[in-house]
Amino acid sequence: MSEQRLLELRGVTQVSARDVVYCPPGLVGGTGTIRCFGFDVWEPHVVRRRKIPGGTVKLVFALDGVFDGRAVHPTALVSGMYDRGSTATHSGRMCSVQVQLGPLAARRLLGVPLHEVRNAVVPLEEILGPSARQLAERLAETRGWQRRFELVGEYLRRLPRAEADDTVVASVRRLRSGRDGLTVSDLVTESGWSRRHFSRRFTDQVGLSPRAYASLLRFSAALRELVAPVPPELGRMAHELGYYDQSHLIRDFQRFAGASPHALLREAMAQSSNTSGAAIA
Q: Is residue 102 within 8 Å of 56, Cβ to Cβ?
């Protein structure tokens, strides 16, 4: 699988690679479930971007630019877990520091049920208080990505951690392991809880229902397969990933990406010559 091609498909590198700065591993979170990027993008025209769910929660420290027609002043936002595709537009400059969190890490850092920010972007200040906005203002005044990343890391390490739900943590790990044949019913049985209680606790911690999260993980696996150097035949890919058939796979792409697999690939190939793109949500 080509990681570069996957990033291009999701819009992270739809502009020149010089516009994206990758935070050194461990500088911000010290864990693989937390990743940090710096973006300083200039677009001479209005860009409409397809946002594809990536199974993460994003903290966005917007430093400068115009987004959805509104001028951005230093501000902090949280973009929750998405269970469907969406679009966004921006033009001119867009400068930000973005932290991608796995749902369990996000739940512990934010301390609120993640379903409260599902399919939404809300001010981080509403959750973490004025310190979030103050950090965005300080980042805007700071020169150099290394120092910006250090400030974000220092801020996150100071935040109190909510208690993790061990049963949900174990269930998420089981789902992410990709074990063939694992069902939500299996997880309910292993938890010892009722299906209703399991679903409620899981949705609190992850932001999506167990079934929706499992579907998103399977779609993400299909997306990785799609951008392989030699993309597989869709029917075979559907069978190997546990879809009922090829039509089932295509419906998931329509749901999560808003386009068929082939249309998404064509769009990615055309990104260098038009103003449309895809982005990870």
A: yes
